[in-house]
Amino acid sequence: MSSAADTLTETPLGGPTLPQERRLVTSIPGPRSQELLARKADAVAAGVGHTAPVQAVAAGGGVIVDADGNSLIDLGSGIAVTTIGNAHPKVVAAVQAQVAQFTHTCFMIAPYDSYVSVAEALNRITPGDHAKKSALFNSGAEAVENAVKIARKYTGKQAVVAFDHGYHGRTNLTMALTAKSMPYKSGFGPFASEIYRAPLSYPYRDGLDGGLAAKKAISMIEKQVGADNLAAIIIEPIQGEGGFIVPADGFLPALVEWCRANDVVFIADEIQTGFARTGEMFASDLFGIVPDLITTAKGIAGGLPLAAVTGRADIMDASHAGGLGGTYGGNPIACAAALAAIDVFENDGMLERAREIETVLKGRLQDLRATDPRVGDVRGHGAMIAAEFVDPATGEPDAALTAAVAKASIAQGVIVLTCGTYGNVIRFLPPLSITDDLLHEGMDVVAAALAAA
Ligand SMILES: *Cc1c(COP(=O)(O)O)cnc(C)c1O
């Protein structure tokens, strides 16, 4: 049988010289990693945390190698960024060629081809056949900030609705849009005004079908904000930090329909879900919705910092010349990397690979759930899969168990990330370049950590 996985096993994308194995030669952290972490504690602000106590020195395929010679299985992709694999050869070549040519002109001073080509590619691959335009930025939060600017300018209205459990970034406006106080907002206020929060569809916990959940959200919006005041609603089609919450069928289409009828811009924040992560190029495609605006970042450029707002040309063009931009936005090296990454997403079987990974991960987690009632829910799409851990007696979230399983997995050389409003979700975001063998071995380690917890 020849599948995308087989191809990837033969030539692990990114880092073909790195053995694709879990290898522990010291305890985690080893002495060199400990040394760096001590320097970090002295030199780096305490607010900048870390998940795995290692000093990374190389990464590719499905592994991260540390300074002590340990090789860890990567089930996090640096938070859904290295989707095509770390140091992917096509990205490396594109970056090397561009960095030798020119490193920066500022697109607002002297434009260049790669920025326009990235915009053309995004306009083509994002959902919907309508006329689209794009603008490029540096980070996800910056893209969200600009999507809100653009929607306000277009509608002449100010209010923005975000959702329970939503995550949109760490800048002032995006903190306001983000739901969870600790650690993202606590003590960092005051926050931007004219932000309102609506209830989300969370099938595992609200038991509502998509239509009813949408009705509840729309009723809140109409009563507490009013369509006359509302510029935009912003929502992650599948929530990331909030716990990989997949809304019930019908929820998102009902919101889109309400926005269309009320001159409200529908913004899909696909910063985590975009670029093949869910087994479709964008999660909006899973739900059959066409957003007015879409924000992207994370997986867009194979690890280089780049972000974008893409959407309806009439909305994107409503801002006056000079109103959008930034010194570094659409940096030529990041754009060269994005063009290489988008080529891989479109032509190297990435959607198929994400769906294969879904089958493996969901299969393994469903097996666990069948025998261990502490696994309350298994959900997600593609290579974006999560398990929610609960107290079987009460159904209450079990954050302590979740943290223990994650910590023990990392100590055994498997990098996993937690998430969720209640801190009780482990999320699996492997690079699509991981082999099935490593994926299974990673899940063996997680299962053993759960059994021991
Ligand atoms: C990560 C993320 C952001 C913020 O992106 P940064 O690049 O960290 O600023 C915004 N929205 C979603 C859905 C994200 O996952």
Automatic annotation (TrEMBL):
Lineage, broadest ranks: Bacteria, Bacillati, Actinomycetota, Actinomycetes, Micrococcales
Enzyme Commission number(s) of this protein: 2.6.1.19, 2.6.1.22
GO molecular function, one term: 4-aminobutyrate:2-oxoglutarate transaminase activity
CDD domains with a match to the protein in the record: OAT_like
Entry-linked SUPFAM superfamilies: PLP-dependent transferases
Record field: compositional bias (Low complexity): 7-19
Protein name: (S)-3-amino-2-methylpropionate transaminase
Pathway(s) where this gene product acts: Amino-acid degradation; 4-aminobutanoate degradation
Group of enzyme by EC: transferase
Region (Disordered): 1-21
Cofactor(s) required, per the database record: pyridoxal 5'-phosphate
Region forming the signal peptide: none
GO biological process, one term: gamma-aminobutyric acid metabolic process
Catalytic activity: (S)-3-amino-2-methylpropanoate + 2-oxoglutarate = 2-methyl-3-oxopropanoate + L-glutamate; 4-aminobutanoate + 2-oxoglutarate = succinate semialdehyde + L-glutamate
InterPro entries associated with the record: 4NH2But_aminotransferase_bac, Aminotrans_3, Aminotrans_3_PPA_site, Class-III_PLP-dep_AT, PyrdxlP-dep_Trfase, PyrdxlP-dep_Trfase_major, PyrdxlP-dep_Trfase_small
One of the Pfam families matching this protein, by short name: Aminotran_3
Keywords of the record: Aminotransferase, Pyridoxal phosphate, Transferase
Similarity field: Belongs to the class-III pyridoxal-phosphate-dependent aminotransferase family.
PANTHER family: AMINOTRANSFERASE CLASS III
